[in-house]
Amino acid sequence: MDRDSPAIWIGRGCAGDTPAEVSLLGAMANRHGLIAGATGTGKTVTLQTLAEGFSMRGVPVFLADVKGDLAGLSAAGGGNAKVSERLAQLGLADRPYTSFPTVCWDLWGEQGHPIRTTVSEMGPLLLSRLLDLNETQAGVLQVVFRYADDEGLLLLDLKDLREALAAAAEHARELSTRYGNVSPASVGTIQRGLLTLEKQGGDLFFGEPALDIGDLFAPPAPGERGTVHILAADRLLRFPRLYATFLLYLLSELFEQLPEVGDRPLPKLVFFFDEAHLLFTDLPKAVLEKVEQVVRLIRSKGVGVYFVTQTPQDIPDPVLGQLGNKFQHALRAFTLRDRRAVQAAAEAFAINPALDTARVVTELGVGEALVSTLDARGAPRPVERVRIVPPQSRIGPIDAAERREVMRRSPLAGKYDHPIDRQSAYETLTERATRRAASAPAPAPSRGRETLWEATAKSTVRAIGSSLGRQIVRGLLGSLFGRRR
Question: Could you tell me the sign of the dihedral formed by the alpha carbons of 269, 203, 242, 144, in that order?
Fold first, then answer.
């Protein structure tokens, strides 16, 4: 098989005297895909092999490295006995090892370039998902975004949003008349959610310079390989809602910014969504509908999306039905739920009369998978039991010195590494408050020594002048009158 063709060689079938050569057609790669299987069965290696195949053909790739293993794409492989054995089985014993052009990203800026967006770009729908707001609270957040737009307030980072929320609470009666009810209780809940998000790293994620989506799919020079963008997600995965919402945001941005391109011999970008079950856990209906829409339509913009998870049951049926290329590694059938997952996985494939998929999926060895890709007409090919070809890059992590070298060579070095804090909602609203305070009439002369109650009252009034003070006072009053904060 021509390794330079638009088709990406996946591996060789395990049955018959002339085993089938299994490949993924480049023109069908934007019809999306699923990589599934139990832990330790080879999903990550399949992902790495596919990423290499796309990169070799000049296609940029974005993926999340949830275990720290995929950074090995930046280094040449070799020295792995199991890989050597598999290459010998496939007749590739002399195949060279190689590295791939890599850009590393990290929310905390430690294992890669900082990756940021602004509050405005995230938008109220995804931010409501991130903060786990109910319908009423999400409606208040929508009002605050509308208020900020009408007032010309830039919402760039979390302090901008906090200040806009405080201003909305201060003008709640006026805003309720113009946009809809703004309750102090909902504002307080959102403010507390922002504090939690800040502890998770949200203060680093929201701000500028924001990610320029164009940096992800910038085409390489003729003959060069596509860049593999790797998001360090081992730490980020501790905050699953932030992880899933961020990747969904990236997909949405690609969908909204890229033009329609029609049919292409290869995708413009391939996006791997690892631990995909986190995206669909407790997903509100409105967000799920957006995911379905993005997955359905983004292929016309030249983007292929590949979900990586343990079982096809982790993916809702409307999304699963749009995943044309399937790579199913071994599943275990210890419980009734496991057996249902095995049956569901078997039924997801185009039938091969020579293969009992429900039985074989429990017998697959490490690095083997049931594979069905789309033919040139877009129809699923019969499923095959396949030995996946190993990657040419390193299987496993890179050390700190190697990572520093990758970052030093990065074409984006210096572009995102230093935060920018320009004039936005926080500064604008603070300046307005300062001008109002300066123009306020002077207080009446003191009648003498103030009482303890008067001193306390004045201190409370001063506290109300800041957004933090307003929250504290609301909390005190709520405690006094027995209301829920």
Answer: negative
Burial of 26 (0-12, 13-18, 19+ CB in 10 A): buried
Q: Give the separation between CA 255 and CA 247, rounded to whole angstroms.
A: 12
Phi, then psi, of 408 in degrees rounded to 5: -65, -40
Q: What is the pTM of this model?
A: 0.86
Q: Where in the chain is the domain with CATH 3.40.50.300?
A: 8-116+211-408
pLDDT tens sequence across 129-148: 999 999 999 999 999 999 99
Under a CB-based contact definition with an 8 Å cutoff, are residues 273 and 307 in contact? yes
Are the C-beta atoms of 25 and 375 separated by less than 8 Å?
Answer: yes
Q: What 3-state DSSP class applies to 7?
A: coil
Half-sphere exposure of 73 (CA within 13 A, CB side): 34
> What is the chain's alpha carbon radius of gyration, rounded to the nearest angstrom?
27
Contacts of 13 (CB under 8 A, 6+ apart): 19, 20, 21, 22, 384, 385, 386, 387
Pairwise CA distance, residues 133 & 116, whole Å = 22
Alpha carbon of 360 to those of 82, 291, 384: distances in Å? Answer: 22, 32, 10
Interval 399-452: pLDDT, tens: 999 999 999 999 999 999 999 999 999 999 999 888 888 887 766 665 554 444
Helix (H) or strand (E) holding 119: helix 119-131
Burial 53-65 (b: 16+ CB within 10 A, else e): bbbbbbbbbbbbb
Query: Quick one: which of 340, 338, 309, 306 has its CA closest to 323?
Result: 306
Calpha distance 339→479 (Å, rounded)? 52
Q: What DSSP character marks residue 420?
A: B
315 neighbors 276 (Cβ within 8 angstroms): yes
Question: 8-116+211-408, what's its fold?
Answer: Rossmann fold (3.40.50)
* 3-class secondary-structure state, position 457: helix
Strands annotated E in 264-383: 269-273, 303-309, 325-328, 368-372
Residue type, 150: D
Residue segments in the chain with a per-residue pLDDT below the cut of 70: 1-5, 16-17, 442-485
